[in-house]
TrEMBL record:
Name used for this protein in its record: Metallo-beta-lactamase domain-containing protein
Coiled-coil regions listed: none
Keywords, alphabetical: Hydrolase
Taxonomic source organism: Vreelandella sulfidaeris
GO molecular function annotation: hydrolase activity
Domain of life: Bacteria
InterPro entries xref list: RibonucZ/Hydroxyglut_hydro (IPR036866), UPF0173_UPF0282_UlaG_hydrolase (IPR050114)
Length: 129
């Protein structure tokens, strides 16, 4: 989803495209002077994404990536356990590679590789006709 906050447009896009995998920047980053008003999604948004696309696997990234992130992997892990969505959310460690094979639009099939590098996610996909 990139650096975004939860908006109606995000929910509409999830409903329209019904993704199998969602890569969610979930570090709850804040800017100095705007504390308490994150500029990217956080733990509650992870739950919102799950509710909007309950069959999708959510890959939560961007925690601990730069100094203005306020949500840690451990905090998010505790939260997803608490709300019971741990089977739908993956929180990769630095250096971890996750691979998915997905079907559906816009490609007949696509193979996704997610590699955690420098605590930021690198998403590469190979489309297969």
């Amino acid at each position: 989803m990139g650096d975004s906050i939860w908006r109606d447009e995000v929910e509409q896009a999830l409903a329209q495209y019904n993704p199998e995998v969602i890569v969610l920047n979930a570090g709850a980053a804040e800017m100095t002077g705007f504390e308490g008003d994150p500029i990217i999604m956080g733990k509650e948004d992870t739950l919102r994404a799950h509710r909007a696309a309950p069959d999708a696997t959510i890959i939560a990234v961007h925690m601990e990536a730069v100094n203005h992130m306020t949500l840690s992997r451990d905090e998010l892990s505790d939260y997803v356990q608490e709300v019971g969505i741990q089977d739908h959310v993956s929180i990769p460690a630095d250096g971890e590679v996750i691979s998915f094979y997905c079907h559906g639009p816009p490609f007949t099939a696509a193979h996704f590789f997610i590699s955690m590098s420098l605590k930021l996610a690198l998403l590469v996909f190979i489309a297969q006709a």
